[in-house]
Amino acid sequence: MTDTTARLAPDATGTVLRRAGMASFMGTFVEWFDYASYGFLATVIAVVFIPATDARTALIATYAVFALSFIVRPIGGIIWGHFGDRIGRQKTLSLSIFIMSAATFVIAFLPTYDMIGLWAVGLLLATRLVQGFAASGEYAGAASFLAEYAPDDKRGMLTCLVPAGEAAGLLAASLFVAILHGVLTVEQLHSWGWRLPFLMALPLGYVGAYIRRKLDETPHFKALERAQHVPQTPVIELMTNHRREVLIAFGGTLLNAVGFYLVLSYMPTYLAAELGVSETAAFIGSTVSLAVYLGSIFVMGALSDRIGRKKVLMACSALFAILTVPMFAMLSSAAFTGLISPGFLVILGIWSLFGALLSMNGGTLPTFLCELFPTRVRFSGFALSFNSANALFGGTAPLIATWLIGATGSKLAPAWFLVVAAIVTFAAIAISTAGKAGSALQRD
C-alpha cells in the first residue's frame, strides 16, 4: 500500500479533524469520569460495601475489587482489538462507551452490605468487571482513531486529546467527589451521596456515543478496506509477526500504568490514610495535580513532534527513577496542619511536580504506541500491550502500595515500586526503533 492511499483528504485537517478530536476527547472523558469515580470514593465504598473490620483491611479489600476489574482487560484488549482491526475503529468505540456508561449507571443502584451482605460485594465486582472490559477498548481505540486522522508533523500534539480526555475525566470526578466531601456530612455521603457520580454516567455516555456515531471511519482503515487488506485474525497476525513490538509496548507502558494510578488515583487516599491529610485537602491537591497534568500534556505532545517520542519518554523515565524517592520523602515529612499551612503548600508543590513529570509520559506514549504497529494490527497491538501492563501493574498499584506500606512499615514503599517501573520503561523505550520526530504511521 502506498503512502498516498492512506493520506488525509485535503479537508481532514479542518472540520473533519476537529470532529475526530472532539469525538476522541469526549468519549475518553466520559469513560474515565465513570472509572475514576470509584477510585476517588474508595474510602467511602470500603465502609459501604466491605464487612466491618479495621480501616486498612477494608481499604485493601476495596482496592482488591478495583484490581480484579483489571483481570478482564487483556481479554477485552484482544476482543476489542479484533473488532477494531476487523470492522473499524468508529463502530468499536461507539459500542465501548455504551457498555461503560451502562455498567457505571448500575453501580448507583447497587444494594449495600447492610442490605444484602456479601452479595453486595459480588454485585460490585460484577459491575467493575464490565467496566474493565469496556475500558480495555477505549484508550487504545481512541488513540488509534485520532492518530490515523492526524498529519504526521502534528500527530503527537493532536493525539494528546486522548490522555487529555482521560485527565479531564479524572479531574471532573475529583472535583465532584471533593464537593461531595465538602457539602455533605459523613452520614449523608455514606447513605446516598456516593451514588451521585455514578448516576451521571448514562446521560454523559449518551452524549459521547452520539458524537462518535456521527463521525466517519479513519482514512487509514478505509484504505485497508479498499485494498482488501483487512486482517482476518489480527491477534494471531500480531503475535506471529510483531512479538518484539508487543514486548516493547508492554515495557514502555509500565511507568504509565504504575505512575498514573499511583499519582493521579491513589495519591488522595495515600495522603489521607497514611499522612493524616484531611480528605478535603487531599482532593484539592488531586485537583491541582490533575490540572497541572492536563495543562502540560499538549506541551509534551508538541515537544515529541519536534524531538521525537523516544527522547521524551526516556527523559521522563530517567527523571522518575531519580526524583521519586526524594519527592515521596518530602511528602512524608511535610507537616499538614490545615489548608493554609506551609506543609500543605509543600504537598501541593510536590504533587504538581509529579503531575508535570507524568504528563511527559502521558502526552507522548499514545502516539508512540500507535507508531509502533502497522495499521492492520494497530488497535490489537496497542490494546493488548497497554491493557496487559495496566492489568498486572496499573490496576494493582493502589493495592500493592497499600500492602507494601503495611508489610514494610515504610511510607516510602510505593516510591520504590514506581522507581522500578521507570527503570523497566527506560530500557524498553531505549531498544525501540520507533518514536522518531515527524515519522509517518506504518501502513499495511
TrEMBL record:
It is found in: Cell membrane. It is a multi-pass membrane protein. The keyword Metal-binding does not apply. PROSITE patterns: MFS, SUGAR_TRANSPORT_1. Its main location: membrane. Pfam families: Sugar_tr (PF00083). GO terms for cellular component: plasma membrane. The chain crosses the membrane at residues 32-52, 58-80, 92-110, 156-180, 192-211, 246-268, 280-300, 312-333, 339-360, 381-406, 412-434. One of its GO terms (molecular function) is symporter activity. Residues 20-439 form the Major facilitator superfamily (MFS) profile domain. InterPro entries: H+-coupled_symporters, MFS_dom, MFS_sugar_transport-like, MFS_trans_sf, Sugar_transporter_CS. Keywords: Cell membrane, Membrane, Symport, Transmembrane, Transmembrane helix, Transport. This is MFS transporter, MHS family, proline/betaine transporter.
